[in-house]
Amino acid sequence: MNSETIPQIGGYHDVRVPLTDVYELAGPDVFKEFEGKGGNRNLVVMPLVLSDRLEETKKGEGSGEYDTLKRLKEIVSSPRENPREGVSIYRVSEGLDLALVDRPLVDPENFSVTGLEKVVADNFSCPENHPAIITTRPSLHVKLSSRGMRVEDPEFLLIGPDIVQEGIIQGNDKLLAKLQEMLVLLTNWLKNIFLFFV
Q1: Contact, 17 vs 117, CB < 8 A?
Q2: Spatial contact of 17 and 30, defined as CB atoms under 8 Å apart
Q3: Each residue of 141-174: pLDDT tens digit?
Q4: Are 104 and 123 in contact (CB under 8 A)?
Q5: Which residues of 42-64 are buried (b: 16+ CB within 10 A; e: fewer)?
Q6: Phi, then psi, of 108 in degrees rounded to 5
Q7: Would you tell me how many other CB atoms lie within 10 Å of the CB of residue 180?
Q8: How many other C-beta atoms lie within 10 A of the C-beta of residue 131?
Q9: How many CB atoms lie within 10 A of CB 28?
Q10: Alpha-carbon gap, residue 125 to 13, rounded angstroms
Q11: pLDDT at residue 147, rounded to an integer
Q12: What gap in Å lies between CA 145 and CA 122, rounded to an integer?
């Protein structure tokens, strides 16, 4: 991984590198959740080797991997904002750019998160000189944090009181209809059992 040929790219409030587990769980919502707020623009970096891994593990339409790849296909059909050797940057929204990183910066045969973090830190101006590696995997948190990397949970995937309350509000009508349907089925089932024993 050689990063000497590309000067640092800046102008981003934060630089994040979600790993495949985040895309598998969140799908293309990753691109909404990592948008910059209040006029700030963030950058999500994805090495093409991770898109290959999503392709290998996709479970079909409706899976996080499939939906992410479908969204990536839409994004790359738009013009590249700032093409450079090994880096293609696309505007996802006013608050988010996506950088796809490939050879010569990232070698798929020798890929590692540690190497990726160094490539991103060398090529993009990051807060604290480190991009945020985003993963849900505790073992990676321990391993990467112990190496001095900035590792974060995808907070939007964590269940908290706000998310539960939002789910309750959004699910009330559907949930009530389903519960009423189940109540009718249960009542009929109990009547049949009663009649069977009488």
Answers
A1: yes
A2: no
A3: 999 999 999 999 998 776 555 544 455 555 566 6
A4: no
A5: bbbbbbbbbbebbeeebeeeebb
A6: -60, -30
A7: 10
A8: 26
A9: 19
A10: 9
A11: 93
A12: 18
Tokens of 25: 């769980």
The two three-digit tokens of residue 140, written as one number = 């990676």
**Amino acid (1-letter code) at residue 114:** T
Please name the helix (run of DSSP H) or strand (run of DSSP E) that holds residue 15, with its range, or none.
strand 15-18
Q: How far apart are CA 86 and CA 51, in angstroms?
A: 15
Count other C-beta atoms under 10 Å from residue 5's C-beta: 11
Least Cα distance to 6 among 114, 112, 134, 104 occurs for 104
pLDDT tens-digit profile of 21-76? 998 888 889 999 999 999 999 999 999 998 888 888 777 776 788 888 999 999 99
CA-nearest of 125, 166, 134 to 26 is 134
